UniProtKB/TrEMBL annotation:
Gene3D superfamilies for the chain: 3.40.50.11350
Protein name: CigA protein
UniProt feature coiled coil, ranges: none
UniProtKB keywords: Signal
Domain of life: Eukaryota
Compositionally biased spans, kind Basic and acidic residues: 278-296
Region (Disordered): 68-90, 278-297
Signal peptide: 1-21
CDD domains: O-FucT_like
Length: 639
């Protein structure tokens, strides 16, 4: 056991040393040719793995190759090193110099940050970061993101991972016993999980260690939990503060505005991005009325009598909900058309002087009743409701968090609270949204009052929120190998989460056989769809799969019986496709299952057809990438 671990550690160390100086292809060249012998046995690709001959070269662990070590475990000059080393407009493989950071921050009104819940897995973090990016944009602030997150699983023996990244006991950090069986977490720089320089295309973003650097504070101050330290992070003025500022009341230290968690979207309200002028006019929004106890700014003073339609819509809202789906609202509207006579007896609601509304005035002729969606929308507006723009959650639940499925909802105008209207006025240096706001929320953590606002967020995420370059590159290669396995036809992919989901009863099928059969039947439907698409638009690139083609399965199943079952049933898992060369090229972070699963997401995004389960946040990330590459929307199913 220990010899094997030592070998692995040494192997990785020498690989990194060597990759600087030597071409390893001669040493490991063999592995490549063994790669895709799918027919000749499943575990072929493991033949060279773990490597059995790493001792050819000096077995040194050189931690200067390893930015995680440098950043987290050393004091002195190297502690100054930022994690943000990717090439970008600020220069190749360079720290962002303090001046550059300062320039970036100056373009905005200050910082936006969160109490980041680092106890969550990456896909939930992804969603929180996406929402934060939007809030920072709406409030014209520079987003601060954590410098590192925790990898939760090691794809090798734990000791291998611990050689590459510092460990924490998550039960201790989060004061919890959630991870009794596997308390270890590894600190992985956030740049290994997402393309931070690219994110800056959407909005100025800095990592927390840069914020600390900008304030002359050591990176070691970063809290392990992700909690925003209201004292320490605010204990020093910016290194660019002038003497005058330092002499003022708070000594030039950054000031803080806290948006209390309970103010964000209390029951009975609809948090929206902003309130456009026409919407404010319609509802008689009065910006002067404020309620400091719940952070409310502005009030809806429209006191018009509730129409029967309005009452029916309100009655359709379920408890604690403030929105209806468009389809449900439409049903109710159309029902009212049926009861029009009754409806007409009520006093018409007094309308504001708005052209759009005037044109929607109640028509007395049945034939002129608004039948189009636009007409229905006008009718809603007339009755104190508005259309809001958001995204559809798979199966009506909010787990997948994708921006690939735009949707409309309707909500009573008087419940709207605009983020910009309420908090755009804050002048403090740091704007903090307290605590956690991710469960049950829509992507972005709010709804949009215009489709343009929603679509802008969509493109911020699709264009700006990308996986790291090395992840995309490896996924591209692996997708190519899948294509080779199916001899150039399209191939299908599915996500099968087992592990903790089996334990909490979140999988649809408890036994792997049933789970697998479900996946197979969905993929068979998918194959039919690919067949149809190929008929509609024949091309040499979309040759549909054959019924007995192997398919790609992203799964956390690691039990040998489970893996054998998958193999016998044409499932191909990531370890069938990875080579030692991949590990060499990619870098150390691939030893973490968390990073490997990013590669898997990107592979799934390349599949001809994709199927996954609705109660997971993994498919959301996959759908985002698919949407970014404009995959046909018929080619996925989440249920
Ligand atoms: C954002 O804030 C900066 C600094 O106050 C200002 O110069 C800039 O015009 C603002 N941008 C927008 C879009 O309001
Ligand atoms: C609605 O909110 C109240 C108070 O927060 C809570 O007790 C209740 O369980 C909620 N109802 C539903 C259906 O979620
Ligand atoms: C090599 C090294 O410096 N290791 C240290 C990394 O950080 C942990 C916790 O701060 C120390 O316990 C190690 O000694």
């Amino acid at each position: 056991m220990w010899r094997r671990i030592l070998c692995l550690v040494l192997a990785f160390a020498s690989i990194f040393l060597l990759s600087q100086t030597l071409d390893l292809s001669q040493v490991y060249g063999k592995s490549k040719s063994k790669l895709i012998l799918w027919k000749s046995g499943r575990h072929q690709t493991h033949a060279d793995w773990p490597p059995k001959h790493p001792k050819i070269f000096e077995p040194l662990y050189d931690d200067s190759q390893d930015d995680a070590r440098n950043t987290f475990n050393k004091s002195g000059p190297s502690a100054e090193k930022t994690l943000d080393e990717e090439d970008d407009e600020y220069g190749p493989r360079h720290n962002l110099r303090l001046e550059k950071l300062q320039d970036m921050v100056r373009q905005t009104k200050g910082y936006y940050t969160r109490d980041y819940s680092k106890a969550l897995g990456w896909n939930n973090m992804r969603y929180i970061l996406e929402a934060s990016l939007l809030h920072a944009r709406l409030l014209n602030r520079t987003l601060i993101i954590p410098s590192y997150v925790y990898a939760r699983a090691c794809d090798f023996d734990k000791e291998v991972c611990s050689a590459y990244a510092d460990t924490v006991n998550r039960n201790e950090v989060f004061n919890s016993d959630e991870w009794k069986s596997q308390p270890l977490g590894w600190r992985v720089p956030i740049t290994k999980m997402m393309d931070v320089p690219r994110l800056r295309r959407s909005q100025p973003v800095i990592i927390l260690s840069d914020y600390l650097r900008l304030h002359g504070l050591p990176p070691s101050l970063e809290t392990a939990t992700g909690y925003w330290d209201r004292d320490k992070y605010h204990s020093q003025p910016s290194v660019f503060a002038d003497e005058m500022t330092k002499g003022n009341a708070i000594g030039g230290r950054p000031s803080l505005f806290v948006l209390k968690n309970g103010w964000y979207d209390p029951t009975g309200t609809v948090r929206v991005d902003r309130l456009p002028q026409d919407l404010r006019d319609r509802g008689g929004w009065d910006p002067r009325s404020t309620d400091p106890d719940n952070g409310r700014v502005g009030e809806w003073v429209d006191s018009a009598k509730k129409s029967p339609l309005c009452a029916s819509l309100e009655a359709a809202l379920s408890e604690n909900e403030s929105t209806l789906t468009w389809d449900r609202a439409k049903e109710i509207l159309l029902e009212h058309i049926g009861k029009r006579d009754e409806y007409e007896h009520d006093e018409p609601v007094e309308l504001p002087e708005d052209e759009r509304i005037k044109s929607a005035k109640f028509s007395r002729s049945r034939s002129r009743w608004p039948k189009t969606d636009q007409g229905l929308e006008r009718e809603l507006i007339r009755n104190g409701w508005e259309v809001v723009y958001t995204y559809e959650g798979a199966l009506g639940m909010e787990y997948s968090k994708t921006v690939a499925t735009p949707a409309r909802q309707v909500a009573p105008r008087s419940r709207f609270r605009g983020l910009v209207e309420e908090y755009g006025h804050a002048t403090e240096d740091v704007f903090l949204l307290e605590g956690e706001t991710h469960l049950g929320r829509k992507p972005g953590g709010l709804r949009f009052t215009t489709s343009a606002g929603r679509d802008e967020f969509t493109s911020m995420i699709l264009d700006g929120f990308h996986l790291p370059h090395e992840v995309l590159q490896l996924a591209q290669q692996i997708a190519g190998r899948m294509r080779d396995i199916v001899q150039g036809r399209e191939w299908m992919g599915a996500h099968m989460r087992r592990g903790d989901f089996v334990n909490v009863g979140w999988v649809m099928e408890k036994s792997i056989e049933d789970h697998f059969k479900r996946i197979q039947s969905r993929l068979e439907d998918g194959r039919q769809i690919l067949g149809q698409i190929a008929v509609e638009a024949p091309s040499e690139y979309n040759i549909p799969p054959l019924s007995d083609d192997p398919f790609y399965l992203a799964t956390d199943e690691r039990a040998p019986e489970g893996l054998d079952y998958i193999a016998q049933n044409r499932g191909i898992v990531i370890h069938d496709l990875l080579t030692i060369n991949d590990y060499r090229t990619f870098g150390w972070s691939l030893v973490f299952t968390d990073v490997l699963s990013l590669v898997e997401q990107a592979v799934l995004a390349q599949s001809g057809y994709f199927y996954a389960h609705a109660m997971s946040s993994v498919p959301g990330a996959v759908l985002n990438i698919r949407a970014a590459r404009k995959a046909d929307p018929r080619t996925f199913l989440i249920d």
